[in-house]
Amino acid sequence: MDDRQFRNAMGKFATGVTVIATEVEGEVHGMTANAFMSVSINPKLVVISIGENARILNKIKQSKIFTVNILAADQQELSMIFAGQLKEHREVEFDRLDGKPVTPGAVAQIACEVSAEHVEGDHTLFIGKVTDIHLEDAEPLIFYSGRYRSLTEEKTAAL
Question: Which fold has domain 3-147?
Answer without folding.
Answer: Pnp Oxidase; Chain A (2.30.110)
